[in-house]
């Protein structure tokens, strides 16, 4: 099994394991990314088989809208419901306190809204996402209103971060979020206090939301490979 195949299989298994926890009649927050995509596909299969009934999804990205429609999951909006029963989403890093870095898919603003509203928030990751300290392997994404990206980058430098504007395919231009904004990816030498850093970054004028998710996760399901076989 190649390394690539193992990671994909871990994501698939963990996505399915999370989808299996969704009960009929639930309002479900649908995360973004390759692991969440397996979860959405798995929910669609359960619906098609009749094992799962009457769920309605709230997506966190345009990618989620497309996938949910493709897999026959009815969608609603936050205007039409007063709660979310369960949200399932991927992450880029998970620390021992279950705090996260998200936003590798530039969807962290909507994800933070939906995941944070859910009665139960389940994170689905492969084992490569587990870290001792946030920021050790992944840059921290910060969504920023386009006209403010230069002053925001300077403000982030003053905080000790090394910011870079996220560029799209072939670096033809900046990545644009579903809200029409840019993403700045920031290297911090160490994120010792994610609670404080989340607030400090969001206080910079022009910042919409950053990818630190603190004190919101209820459960993390981790896909692993043991003895050459993927498991959750
Ligand atoms: C998107 C996210 C994703 O959930 C995160 O990047 C993980 O993605 P993947 O499951 O593809 O590794 O935060 O904004």
From TrEMBL:
<comment type="subunit">
    <text>Homodimer.</text>
</comment>
<keyword id="KW-0413">Isomerase</keyword>
<feature type="binding site">
    <location>
        <begin position="102"/>
        <end position="105"/>
    </location>
    <ligand>
        <name>substrate</name>
    </ligand>
</feature>
<dbReference type="GO" id="GO:0004751">
    <property type="term" value="F:ribose-5-phosphate isomerase activity"/>
</dbReference>
<feature type="binding site">
    <location>
        <begin position="89"/>
        <end position="92"/>
    </location>
    <ligand>
        <name>substrate</name>
    </ligand>
</feature>
<dbReference type="InterPro" id="IPR037171">
    <property type="entry name" value="NagB/RpiA_transferase-like"/>
</dbReference>
<feature type="binding site">
    <location>
        <begin position="32"/>
        <end position="35"/>
    </location>
    <ligand>
        <name>substrate</name>
    </ligand>
</feature>
<feature type="active site" description="Proton acceptor">
    <location>
        <position position="111"/>
    </location>
</feature>
<feature type="binding site">
    <location>
        <position position="129"/>
    </location>
    <ligand>
        <name>substrate</name>
    </ligand>
</feature>
<dbReference type="Pfam" id="PF06026">
    <property type="entry name" value="Rib_5-P_isom_A"/>
</dbReference>
<comment type="pathway">
    <text>Carbohydrate degradation; pentose phosphate pathway; D-ribose 5-phosphate from D-ribulose 5-phosphate (non-oxidative stage): step 1/1.</text>
</comment>
<dbReference type="InterPro" id="IPR004788">
    <property type="entry name" value="Ribose5P_isomerase_type_A"/>
</dbReference>
<protein>
    <recommendedName>
        <fullName>Ribose-5-phosphate isomerase A</fullName>
        <ecNumber>5.3.1.6</ecNumber>
    </recommendedName>
</protein>
<comment type="similarity">
    <text>Belongs to the ribose 5-phosphate isomerase family.</text>
</comment>
<dbReference type="InterPro" id="IPR020672">
    <property type="entry name" value="Ribose5P_isomerase_typA_subgr"/>
</dbReference>
<comment type="function">
    <text>Catalyzes the reversible conversion of ribose-5-phosphate to ribulose 5-phosphate.</text>
</comment>
């Amino acid at each position: 099994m190649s390394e690539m195949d193992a990671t994909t299989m871990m994501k698939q298994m963990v996505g399915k394991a999370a989808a299996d926890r969704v009960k009929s009649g639930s309002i479900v927050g649908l995360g973004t990314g390759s692991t969440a995509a397996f979860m959405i596909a798995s929910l669609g299969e359960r619906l098609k088989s009749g094992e799962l009934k009457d769920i309605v999804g709230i997506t966190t990205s345009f990618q989620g809208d497309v996938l949910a429609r493709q897999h026959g999951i009815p969608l609603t909006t936050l205007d039409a419901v007063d709660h979310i029963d369960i949200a399932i989403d991927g992450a880029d890093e998970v620390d021992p306190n279950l705090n996260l870095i998200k936003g590798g898919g530039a969807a962290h603003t909507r994800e933070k809204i939906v995941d944070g509203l859910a009665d139960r928030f389940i994170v689905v990751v492969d084992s490569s996402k587990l870290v001792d300290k946030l920021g050790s392997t992944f840059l921290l994404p910060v969504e920023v209103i386009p006209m403010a990206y230069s002053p925001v980058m300077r403000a982030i430098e003053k905080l000790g971060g090394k910011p870079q504007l996220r560029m799209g395919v072939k670096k033809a231009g900046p990545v644009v979020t579903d809200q029409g904004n840019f993403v700045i990816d920031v290297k911090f030498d160490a994120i010792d206090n994610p609670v404080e850093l989340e607030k400090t970054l969001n206080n910079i004028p022009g910042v919409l939301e950053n990818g630190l998710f603190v004190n919101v996760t209820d459960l993390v399901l981790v896909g692993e490979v043991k003895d050459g076989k993927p498991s959750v």
